[in-house]
Design a protein that fits this description.
Layout lengths: L2 H9 L17 E2 L26 E5 L6 H10 L3 E6 L11 E4 L16 E4 L5 H11 L5 E5 L12 E3 L2 E3 L25 H15 L4 E6 L1 E3 L10 H8 L1 E6 L8 E3 H14 L1 E7 L8 H9 L6 E6 L1 H6 L23 H5 L7 H12 L4 H5 L7 H13 L3
Parallel strand pairs: 1-13, 2-3, 2-5, 3-4, 5-6, 6-9, 9-13, 10-12, 11-14
Antiparallel strand pairs: 7-8
């Protein structure tokens, strides 16, 4: 393990932080940890938009944010009866759905006295929200699907380099250690992101024993993502020219298109699949180089990558994830086992499709968002770093 890299990641706020969010029970199938890998090679939306075998009544807590709209539309297209519950502040074009107004932080009156087949909890930003909703809905639904995060895991391991390859000390799976409250912590105290997600998972399992589904995404990307945590790369690569590529090209990288994960979550609801699942992608290990070259495959614009070592980038004050998005050099949160999700039907559209669609969507964003991006290095600063690298004798 390289202590310098660990310090680098921690200083950038990546290590241990958010990458960003029962037997015999009728209608619920327990997940198996076995199963062969499955990978999508076409560009359609999952295993087709034909109606589900048995349409269900779905309550989606959220529905107008990043991952919500596509989830709602996909569920409606497959014949489900969809209700969304939001504060009514964000707008989305969601026809053929019932829209209930309230607040996860205490105003759940619109949900009282109602019943659904499955609750899909997309937007828990506080474990207290999970407490309130599960307490109210534990007898009002058969299944509760909670969208958590791989940041619920304690991340003790980092990759290290050996000659021309990268080895991994730790591979995170569903049995890996999660965050637990520190000594002296009491219910009602604040919790950091990873702990908040872990606590919410436990709350869901307790309220819906054998009927809870925990989905732990990694970095969710694609059209609609206003964090720019991935968007930077398709935009920069489609622009062409010399592109600053960070660190060791062999370091692992994992991302998932928001449409792939939301469609899969709907299918988990259709099939009543319970259990805990890591949900990132692609189906097989992807390196940082494979991600960048995969994006380049979606454009005919000439592109040249210049790989700059992370120690030089650190000396230049270039931060992972913030200035160079989707780059977490050596973090084991970018090397997460997803076999269980693959066995449960998770599929992926090609990276080129995600890249093109992301660029197309970005062109529809308000001008102020495009001028004030939340992540990514400026072209001028990128040029400065590349020039400094050459001046150093690269």
């Amino acid at each position: 393990m390289n202590p310098t890299r660990r310090d680098f990641l921690r200083a950038a706020g990546i290590a241990g932080a958010g990458l960003g969010l029962g037997l015999g029970t009728p209608g619920i199938a327990l997940a198996s940890s076995n199963g062969s890998r499955r990978r999508r090679t076409d560009g359609d939306s999952g295993p087709g938009l034909q109606q589900a075998p048995t349409p269900k009544r779905l309550l989606i807590l959220g529905g107008t944010g990043f991952i919500g709209p596509h989830m709602v539309r996909y569920a409606v297209e497959r014949g489900h009866e969809v209700t969304i519950f939001t504060r009514g502040r964000a707008q989305a074009d969601l026809p053929d759905v019932e829209h209930l107004i309230g607040d996860r932080d205490g105003d759940l009156g619109a949900l009282e006295g109602r019943n659904w087949d499955v609750v899909l909890d997309n937007n828990t930003q506080n474990y207290r929200w999970a407490q309130l909703s599960t307490e109210l809905l534990r007898d009002a639904a058969e299944q509760y699907i909670f969208v958590s995060s791989i940041s619920a895991y304690i991340s003790p391991g980092l990759a290290y380099e050996h000659k021309d390859r990268v080895l991994y000390e730790h591979l995170i799976d569903e049995d890996s250690e999660r965050f637990t409250p520190p000594d002296g912590w009491q219910d009602g105290d604040d919790a950091h992101y990873g702990l908040m997600k872990a606590l919410s998972e436990d709350i869901a399992h307790e309220a819906f024993p054998g009927r809870a589904t925990i989905v732990r995404p990694g970095l969710i990307v694609g059209p609609g993502d206003r964090t720019d945590r991935f968007t930077y790369w398709p935009l920069r690569i489609f622009e062409g020219g010399e592109v600053l590529a960070p660190g060791n090209p062999e370091h692992a990288n994992q991302i998932i298109d928001q449409r792939d994960i939301t469609e899969w979550i709907v299918r988990l609801a259709e099939n009543g699949v319970a259990g805990d699942f890591n949900a990132t992608g692609p189906a097989s290990r992807m390196s940082m180089a494979e991600m960048l070259y995969g994006i380049r495959a979606a454009t005919s614009t000439p592109v040249e990558f210049t790989w700059v070592p992370e120690d030089f980038l650190e000396a230049q004050g270039v931060r992972p994830f913030g200035q160079l998005p989707a780059w977490a050099p050596g973090a084991d949160l970018m090397y997460v086992d997803i076999d269980r999700a693959l066995a449960a039907g998770l599929t992926f559209r090609p990276l080129a499709v995600t890249s093109r669609d992301t660029v197309d969507w970005d062109g529809t964003r308000p001008e102020d968002e495009r001028l004030n991006r939340r992540a990514g290095i400026s072209r001028a600063r990128e040029r400065e770093v590349l020039d400094a690298w050459r001046a150093a004798g690269a």
